[in-house]
Amino acid sequence: MSDHPNSYSNFLPDQRWWEIDQERFRETDALYRIGEWAIFVAMWKVEDFNAGLVQRCPTCLTGESAIDATYQQPTFDRCPTCYGALYSGPHGGVKSLQIRPSIWQFGEKDLQWLRRGETEIQNATVTTTSDVRLWKRDYIIRGDGLRFGVNSVSGVHLSSGFGTQAHTQTATTYTYGIQKEHESSPVYSIAPDTNTSIQILNALYQRYLPNFSQYEYDDGPQGT
């Protein structure tokens, strides 16, 4: 029998998933009490293409140009089909669109000189429910019509009991570091348009949760 470091307990407790479920419920309840609606847009990625879930964009990746054939890069910006994702499925470059409660924290605005000229930079963090799994190059649409690109992802994960913790089962919330997209970004071509998204996310007050199923869809796995 191998020796183990000294411990106050010789007992290894079972994993207690109900503890994580309770904490997830409390944090989700807070989002619904003091948050706001937002649209979370996941784009198709190369991992999805390699898994055979999606095809290359038939509009901007035709293989007809030297740039496309050599570097597999689009020949023009603001592609009306894939919105810059390079891959296209049932909803173009968008893999899933979900509307969830969220809590926003904004940093101070700044100005940065880019090729297009002086541009206002706005960074923020957004916390939402654990069933939303975005990644870099995904987008979040706020109720004021502004659209933000995801730069970083962090999740709150809890452990309960002894044993291998399933990463997908231990998250209670996810927080995304984001930056406001310029008006020329392809994300502004993604439906719903700005005016419609403002109407959807700012519906009149009602005591029961609205049904957003007519706007939402999920064509592929989360978190890729």
Principal-axes shape call? globular
Task: Report the total helices.
Answer: 4
Write down how many β-strands occur, each being a DSSP E stretch of 2 or more residues. Answer: 11
Structural class computed from helices and strand pairing: alpha+beta
How would you write the strand order of the largest sheet?
1-4-7-10-9-8
Give the SSE order as H and E letters: HEHEHEEEEEEEEHE
Give the N-terminus to C-terminus distance in angstroms.
43 Å
Number of domains: 2
Low-confidence stretches: none
DSSP strand content: 25-35%
Sketch the major β-sheet.
6 strands, antiparallel, barrel
Helix content: 10-25%
Radius of gyration: 21 Å
Q: Please, what is the average pLDDT? A: 84
Break the fold down into its secondary structure elements and pairings:
Blueprint: H1 17-34, E1 36-43, H2 46-50, E2 55-56, H3 66-71, E3 87-88, E4 94-106, E5 110-114, E6 117-121, E7 123-129, E8 139-141, E9 147-157, E10 171-180, H4 194-201, E11 217-218
Antiparallel strand pairs: 1-4, 1-8, 2-3, 4-7, 4-11, 5-6, 7-10, 8-9, 9-10
Q: Care to describe what's here?
A:
The chain is α+β, with helices and mostly antiparallel strands. The protein folds into two domains: 138 residues, no CATH class; 48 residues, no CATH class. 17% of the residues lie in helices and 30% in strands. It is built from four helices and eleven strands, in the order H-E-H-E-H-E-E-E-E-E-E-E-E-H-E. It has a six-stranded antiparallel barrel with strand order 1-4-7-10-9-8. The longest helix is centred in the first third of the chain and has 18 residues. It starts with 16 loop residues before the first helix and ends in a 6-residue tail after the last strand. The model has no long low-confidence stretch (mean pLDDT 84).
